UniProtKB/TrEMBL annotation:
It comes from Amphimedon queenslandica. GO terms for molecular function: 5'-3' DNA helicase activity; ATP binding; ATP hydrolysis activity. Its EC number is 5.6.2.3. The keyword ATP-binding applies. This is ATP-dependent DNA helicase.
């Protein structure tokens, strides 16, 4: 549902690009998408149909075709700063 709201708002804010996903803006997603399902609503991978914004968000999410998996922890690498 959140993706649907973001997509809809960006298309409104950028009417000259309203035919493009997210109003033509580049979008980066990061995090642990397999962590927990949403508290209210359906997970993105559900096969059940849902309401308008949730469907729009699901369609937007499914447009992401490239993923990079980070395998090395960088936060703890390097000098320790106190």
């Amino acid at each position: 549902k959140t993706f649907g709201m973001i997509d809809r708002r960006l298309r409104q804010a950028l009417p000259h690009k309203s035919q493009k996903l997210f109003g033509g803006c580049s979008v980066l997603l990061f995090g642990d998408f397999g962590q927990l399902p949403p508290v209210f609503g359906l997970p993105l991978y559900t096969t059940q149909s849902s309401l308008d914004l949730a469907d729009q968000g699901c369609r937007a999410y499914n447009q992401f075709t490239t993923a990079f998996t980070l395998i090395q922890v960088m936060r703890q690498s390097g000098r320790i700063l106190n």
